[in-house]
Amino acid sequence: MSSSADDLCPGLSSNPDISGPGVRIALYLQSLLSVLLVRYSPKDAPGAYWSMTSTAFSLIISSIVTAAAKEISLLDAIVVVYVLLLPILASAFGLTEIMSPQSSKKSTRSVHSPLLTVANWMRSAFTYSFALYVWISAPEFGQGPRACNEATFFIFFGASLPALRSGRWLNIAVWSLMTTRFVWRSGKSAKTLFVSLNALFSKTATQRLLKPRYPPKNEIHEQTVWTKDYGTGQETLRVRRWRPRQIFHELIQSLTSQILNWAPFGTGALYKRYGQNIIISMLAVWAIVMTELQLSLNNQGEINNEWGFGQILPLVLTISPLFSLWESFISRQSSGPASKSRKIRFSIRAAQNLTRPMCELDFWPPTTVDEMTEGQVAKARAPSAFAVITIDERDVYTTFEAPDNNCPVWNESFDIEVTDLSTIVVRVFDRKCIDMGWPSFIGYTTIHPFTVFPHASHSSAADVSNENENETIMSSLPSGKVDVDSIPLVLDDYTMHNMTISISISPSTEEPVNLPGPTSSSRLTTGPRKTKTERRAPKPIELLFRSR
């Protein structure tokens, strides 16, 4: 049947502005540059991401428009679907590198904009919709007679599958499963999408992204672990205390992102450095090879190799991320030795004399306010304050709120990686104003961690050999915690000396983070207590050494 179809169809046509070499090379390069910038210059990665996303959007929209006008062939549409896999893979890798999942052991989460959430979802929605549309309508799709569609083959791992028979049903099954999962994930994250979309057009709506998705329980969980080692007969008893994490609005993770976050032997540094690179490289090479085979193994007629506007523009868009990558390497060479990141423990302890930006009593008549008790007025005017600590505009930590308190006590600590140039910004917000849709910003302050530490003595640094850089770094740090009290907040370019915060910074991170005890100011309560039993048997290698 295919031979008769070949006789009726003189050759498969292809539109160079859609599947031409310029479009394909541009997406190949932009995907590669996005991955490289995420790895080597994260601050320039957003530019490459938006360049790649704009090219992917323009390719999808132009394909949909030309398909509706019957000006695109089934072969072109299959190539577009294959090519669109690269932006999905590159963005999944970039978002996996930038966005740390909340299930990880890190206390901080990654900073991202609502535009990134909406754009990432829209690109996936367009891709899934277009792929399903192509394969469901494959018999009558596009320009040319049906015989040309029958003569088209879908290339899968080098095998030529008829595009209207086995190849069609295989793609419908695969894309239907992926679309179903995407719709399910979108339904679970519908609130996040709605909030992010609203935040694009409203300043007050952006504040809702600072709040947890669900009201958090500010309580301490306690677990007693009894361990018995049957090899030595030793019994140990330890108490583990923790506080449940707050769940915030996050990016909707795709299937590819979840695959990259999964590791057979854990998500350690070795897998993060090499495992994800290997997996993403294999998937990208597979997508590129399948795209090129799709064009070379199909019987095309007269191939139009004319380089028009549709092929030149995507290549021009590649210049921006290319120059960003080049500039990052030049700046590294000209800025001298790069400072190594070091881990410190940051503690946000308390705040003093905070006031609400707006209050319900401001709209009430004075006579009504006079009828209220002093305690009711003080509670209404006191903020339910929480602090948002941002590190290099990359990672963010959000404290639990302290309800109805002008002088909240948080006493929350977390470990962060910082360099000599790192900047920590502490912003304080009022949750009650956010719930009312009012401006909620109370004030902020900026901290440079290594200016807080006292300077190391010249002798302590000089006594260490230069051959061991790690020892030099550790000797230049103090061994104890540094408390900084009464740091004034800044609001509307004015320093508010009456509103202050207190912090602590320590280079010592070996000990676990201490959890605060229940206090009236933090409304911290004692949560459930559990008992766990662990039994350990000696390993074979341990038995071997003991027998000797």
TrEMBL record:
Residues annotated as transmembrane: 22-40, 47-68, 74-95, 115-136
SUPFAM superfamilies associated with the record: C2 domain (Calcium/lipid-binding domain, CaLB)
Pfam families in UniProt: C2
Source species, domain of life: Eukaryota
InterPro entries (alphabetical): C2_dom, C2_domain_sf
Keywords assigned by UniProt, alphabetized: Membrane, Transmembrane, Transmembrane helix
Region listing for Disordered, in residue ranges: 507-540
Gene3D superfamilies given in the database record: C2 domain
Cross-referenced PROSITE patterns: C2 (PS50004)
Domain called C2: residue spans: 324-463
Name recorded for this polypeptide: C2 domain-containing protein
Protein's organism: Psilocybe cubensis (Psychedelic mushroom)
